[in-house]
Structures are given as structure tokens and as C-alpha cells.
Amino acid sequence: MNLPAAASWRHQDARSGFEVAFFQGHEGGWRISGATTAVEDGASWFVEYAITVDAAWRTRRAEISGRSVTGIRRTVLDADGDGRWRVDGVPDPRLDGCFDVDLESSSMTNTLPVHRLGLALGAASEAPAAYVRAGDLAVERLEQRYRRTGDLDFAYTAPVFDFSCVLNYDEHLLVTDYPGIAVRLS
């Protein structure tokens, strides 16, 4: 499936801000670079990312940098495609079995598991992810679940946050409406 050259989202409700992502074919997969800026709970931050996914939409590398009032940070995640990860060069067994990176700062990263899973209508799957926090770039495991409820709609659940919603996507399987988080602008 082809992706547009770029997409953008406006944060809403949970925070105020903006995200822009650029998509480029890369060795049979994709290289996605972008940035997001926001004010959340009175704190300002920005996050820049470059994510590489292989032809099966498994995250292979994520280079993330950010800045907040607490300082400038950078972290690099490398995945072997079989569910094992290194964070800044160090193996992180907490992430074993994850195939996606999910950036707290990004709505775009919700496209990664939807493409990778290729769920049929009514089908569901667990999709644990290497989750990167916006403010300090801390990395943790995030248990999440996707269920395809319509042609372009997926029920999404993240139990640790006691959060669930229906995510709406476009024909490229990019999020168009992430209730309480962001709406797609272009």
C-alpha cells in the first residue's frame, strides 16, 4: 500500500499541539520521519523521530530526540524483526515480543500495527509495543489490542491507561480521528 508523501495531525483535548510526518520508501519498507510539539498539563515539549519499518511493517529502528524543560534527550531503539529490542545499544527483555514502536507524542505510530497485522473485518489481535514517553523519552512495554470493526475503523484498547476508543483511518491506514488525542489535517 502506498502512503502519501506527508501527513499532519492537530492534537486535541489531552494536549494542544501539532504533528507532521513524512513517508519515504526504504529497502522494501518505509522510513517515516516527523516531529510533534505540544503543551500538556502546562508543560511544553517537542519530539523528533525517524522510524524505519521493514516490508512486513515491523519496526526495525527508531531514532527519537526530544526537549522539555527537564532537558534535551535522545534514544535509539533497534529491533531484530523477531521481537527482540535494544535500547541505546543495550538488550531490553521487557520488550520481547513487541514488533511496533509507539510514541506517546505521535498519532502516526498507530498506523504501524494496523498495517502489520492486516486484520480481517471482526478480527482482533494483541499488539504490545515499545512505548516511548514524550517528556523524558523513557521506554516501557505497552500492552494494547486492535480489533477491526469496519473497513477503516479499529477498536483500540490500552488497559494500563484504562483507555479504549474507536480509531478511524483513511485509505492509507493513517489515523484520521483519534478521539481525545488528535485529528488528521492533511
Automatic annotation (TrEMBL):
Top-rank taxon: Bacteria
Pfam families (alphabetical): Glycolipid_bind
SUPFAM superfamilies: PA1994-like
Listed name of the protein: Uncharacterized protein
